[in-house]
Amino acid sequence: MRRVRGFLAVLLFAAVAAHPAAQAAPKTATWDYYKAGDLAAARPGMTSGALMLLGGGDWPVPAFRWFVERMGHGHLVILRASGADDLQQDFLNEVGGAASVETIVFHSRTAASDPKVMEIVRRADGIFFGGGDQSNYVRFIKGTPLNALLDAHVRAGKPIGGTSAGLAILGAYSYGAMDGGSLLSTDALQNPLGGGVTLVSDFLHMPYLSHVITDSHFAIRERFGRLLVFVGRLATEQKDPAITGIGIDEKAALCIESDGTGRVYSIGRGFAWLVRPMRAPETLAARPYDVRGVPVVGIGEESALDMRTFAVTRPSFSLSVDVVNGEIAPASWAALKAAMATPAATTAPKKWALAIHGGAGVIERGDLSRDKEAAYRAGLDAALAAGQKVLAGGGSSLDAVEATIRVLEDNPLFNAGKGAVFTADGRNELDASIMDGASRRAGAVTGVTRTRNPISLARVVMERSPHVLLAREGADQFSLEQGLPQVDPSYFRTEERWQQLLDWRKDNAAKLDPTHSRGTVGAVAIDVNGHVAAGTSTGGMTGKRWGRVGDSPVIGAGTYAADGNCAVSATGSGEYFIRSSAARQLCDRIAWRNEDVRDAARDTIDDIGRIGGDGGVIAMDGAGSIAFAMNSSGMYRGWVTSAQPAGTAIYSDEPGP
Question: Considering only Cβ atoms within 10 Å of each terminal Cβ, which end of the chain, N or C, has fewer?
């Protein structure tokens, strides 16, 4: 059975301490049952209707972590038609993160109508089909009450996935292997109407897969030919030129969000192969297959797929395949082989990058004492080191952004977290936001008073709630319910910030320290898989009143990220950044005007300046190029990349990366 390795110490399943081994219920004549974890535990987060398509072989751990997040870290049910609890044990020992795991092994069709089976599946937050023989899944489940319940699970916005044979049944059309064999490409190409080409329809009904047939173990078992036949035959028989084939390599997974955006995770260099000719073959008969110019697109970890249109951003390769007299043409076969032989070791070194800011303001040389300037630079260096550790270790841009900002929030020099300024009535009210460029999911909070690290709460809003922005008492309550570290409000008090409030009360900001008049912290990053993320955190403005909210928690104003385009975090006079949709504006300049990231950052700040605003932005494009722009005399900022050591700057005339 297939295992994942190397994450045991980090991701150990929480319930294993209480349940060191999975518990097996007495076997019945029609199904076996295994369980582990706390079946009565409340689901910690919200579910999201997502699909995980695995090609078989070892499991890529990040894909399973993604799946567990989409099931709200709740209850997983594994469905199998052979085997025992080995997949469950693999999950318990090496993936973790779920409240419980249950496994049902079917031995007959009768089990798919058993009320006990139905109840187990009905309460599942996530469902995963194991491998084996897909014909058994078809025989045991298709057309049963369980079939209807699985469709209802998906309609309810809960994730589902499968590997190998479990992948094969997820499309609207399936290769059923109903003759008891495993069809070879050579046989399918010689006779596309042969008895081994057993295609099944009207089984499961998954979002975005209504015109799709899938295949697994794709490259290593040379299944190109049979998928070409499946697609051509279905396009003809269903009179549907939109029939699409998706082949998944071993040790690879295509993960599809509820909005249809998809990405690939893999161990080594695996792909999802998109076969979409958009036409039926000219002839289909019981003789060697002929078809010309079938487009094949490779989707790698650096790519993004839109399942609504099947558009691929940054494809790993694009080919045109010919089949002549039942054989893939030599030139096409050579191109397919070349695509298969592009492991990570032969590609360009994978790159990552990180940029941060600690707020903008009137910061002239000489305004800061030597010790104060050194302390600011040391604080920036510490934050860069935290993010660099994540990215250099192959971690995600989202993890890096959160880790970086947490360090800045814990540093009283910066107006975020521990160093937050006071409102007019002497309170610390904290705002934060974070955005994942891969999925364009986002989370934000405003007016938080007890969460030690607001950036972590923003991420939990994104991952465990159906919302984007939570405010004040509601955000505090959500944080408490989600188990984030809480502090007494006095934790955020510093004498320097308190004195700034007293000065403000005397003369309404006339005596505020101008070297940190626009206090905010933020980070943008790109990871080795080409995914970007952005985050921003702040204490707001000294003396703010009436529940004022600035740009930092507003997605599109203070924070924005989109893979292949940009990641942005802003700092400055928030009202103007909101009016200008600053972060989104910068990204749109790149996307729609083809501006480079430096020009887009500069032009965005100029636009803000024209309406009276001031501050700065940090930005990164889809290739990891970094830009800083400001119309103030200074901004605390820093950068580090896979090709460049860490650097910091404060004054506007200091060089950047």
Answer: N
